[in-house]
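W.,

You were right to be curious about this one. When I first looked at the sequence I had no strong expectations either way, so I just let the prediction run and decided to look at it fresh. Below is the sequence, 556 residues in total, followed by the output.
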Amino acid sequence: MKETLRFSNLDRKKTIDELSKEAFDLVVIGGGITGAGIALDAASRGLKTALVEKGDFASGTSSKSTKLIHGGLRYLKQFDFWLVKEVGSERAIVHNLAPHLVLPEKMLLPLIEGGSYGKWLTSIGLKVYDILAQVTGDDKRQMLDKKQALKLEPLLPKKILNGAGYYAEYRTDDARLTIENIKTSLQYGAKALNYAEVTDFLYGDEKVAGVKVKDVATGDEFEIKSRYVISAAGPWVDELRSVNNSKKGKRLHLTKGVHLVFPHEKLPVKQSVYFDIPDGRMMFAIPRGKITYIGTTDTNYNSDKDNVQTDLADAIYLISAVNNMFPKIQLEMEDIISSWAGLRPLIHEEGKSASELSRKDEIFTSDTGLISMAGGKLTGYRKMAERVVNRVAKKLEEDHGVEVGKCKTDVIPLCGNDFKRSKHVEKYIAKVYGQIKSDGFSEHDAWYLVTTYGVQTEQILKYYTGFKNKDIYTRLIRAELKFGIENEMVLNPMDFFIRRTGRLYFDIDSVRTFMEPVLEDIKKAYGHDAQQMNAFREKMEEELEKHSDFSLERAF
């Protein structure tokens, strides 16, 4: 009987050996949400699928979004009804696939004097939004008068407030959504590897027939043979088109989006607010546990794609916008506790500014058969995957006489999901709290575990009982790390603190507190030497500074 490999870098050599020796129907380049969705769609239709990612999974755009599964209300202003309809409908589907990870979130849209949205147009717009997105029940939009709006959010500007729209969106952790899609694809036979960079393509009869890959962890090189290759490399799509000598016609236009994180007590909004800023754009303020985060910017980007940073101008712009909308709040630079900056890989359109560019996705196919997926939104990842896998399915039938079934990812629950609806998630949180409160954990700790791992929390709590540290939080973080190493391809502390747990963004003090025990357990797991561990420590300290230090000294 063939050994089943763990989804773990502890089995990295065996995984690479299998990728090298087997022939695949499809190789997917890029381990962000688009690549993850494609891998699940293809594998669940019976295609033998491999996915490779040059960094960690979700380390590009897919850990740096606004972390909303939202219907794109602002696209109504651009009369992009098709996009609103598709992504609006997708919200409920993705929520059902992972109700612990995609959480209902009421959104308040203040109507202010001289603002982007008037009362009548907002009422009509939200109604159209409800219809296009097939919104039902309590999630349907409500129009609030000034008094009702202030009751929901007392921080709003009383003097210029005329009322508000109140409607439903969904909040998520984009990196967790990505990793759970990949893990679910493994249940259908897919293979996936992080830190595996595609350096070139294999060709047969002048058609792409696989990829050449560099193992970033060791420097070794290997090849993966495949009938078809899809590049879902986000901001790096054009680089791979260049390697394939097919970068012509349409191209990417990269824009940068920045988010800042504050302690909730510094920006104590009661629920998410989508509000005007003086330059005519819109912005979010979203409470999440102990913190509130705000965003986003939308500026052209032409610098290093592997090192996107929040700069002083970004921070000043966002803080000024918040202070303008919430007159009782006066945020300052030193109030920032964390941040993130990511890129949007949009399709270039002549004469349009960054914020005017469409979020639609497009598929490019080169003369040699390389299929590239570009553009799109987090919310639309599943439909993007369906469209591009449909194209591969058609080619398989034409070229090889192989019939492939239709997409069924709308009914495949993601890893960690054993819930029918939101109320079952709430019951499970209460159950977990009942299990851990006697040790001294809070209700927030139970909420964090369930909304991060779903029912996989049970495994983490089993690991927790095996650790003997006096401090309960040290035991818990070691249990989370053990789960990440054995089941989620965690290779280094950045994978764990940034992508698997979101702690660098949402609980940055815990990163500082628990860095050493995490480093120690990674050393034990992989047998790293002192030099490697020092390199990890230095890199993690760089990340802490990059995401939280906005002093003038650093800026200049």
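Here's what jumped out at me. The chain has a mean pLDDT of 92. And, maybe more interesting for your project: Residues 199 and 485 are 27 Å apart (CA to CA).

Coffee later to discuss?

I.
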